[in-house]
User: Fold this.
Amino acid sequence: LSLHLSRKTPLLAFLHSLPLHSLILIQHRFRVLPDDGRQTLLQEHEKPAPAFYQIEYYQQFFDVDTEQVVTRIKTSQWPLQNDFLDKIHNRGDLYGPFWISTTLVFTMAMSGNIAHWYATAEEDRSTWQYDFSKVSLAATTIYSYTSLIPFLVWAVLRWKTQTLFTLLDVFCIYGYSLFSYVPVSILCAVPQFGSVGRWVLVFTALGLSGTVLIVNFMRCLKAESLRLFWSLVGGIAVAHTGLALAFKFYFFEYE
Assistant:
């Protein structure tokens, strides 16, 4: 209901007698707007939804605040948290996954170069050069994993199950699950941890992130056949383990 008040309206004297907070409530309830404000409202209402190839279309996937991102990071790092997908269903975001993946690209490349520098003989360190190819390799590995694997998992869920989780939901949990690798990649750059220590760090990150993925997807598949259950859960575990081993042998290897 839109109420337009002319200056000649007898109602004007009554409105002037009301307290300010009452006028604000009336304006909010009946949308008492001047002509230019009412026209702007109509224009916004009639504005068509942006197409998928427009930047405006993707703004909705980044519409989160810091508190939401921090809460989702904490939730994704708790191994027994099996309702992460339920909490983000139809409310997933790409801001957190993109930020985590991009941060991980640079921390992995940094750790890989530090590991290479420490592995270089002291007499050769004066000629040592930063290997920028590690940045491109880390980016290719991480962005490929966080886009292709979630898409395959979602495709199987849509094809074989009755799950209502969206592709955005699956992208979201995969992206947030990789956060544990960010501090681990930094710690692995410290040579004092030694080979055994780096193995422990990598498998700790693998356990934290992999468990969150598995327990959440197990919950989705508990009503499905055992063959589908173990095929999908096993595939998720194998892919995640392969990512951890790639990190360890290429970026965190000092020898």
About this structure: Residues 133-160 form the longest helix (28 residues).
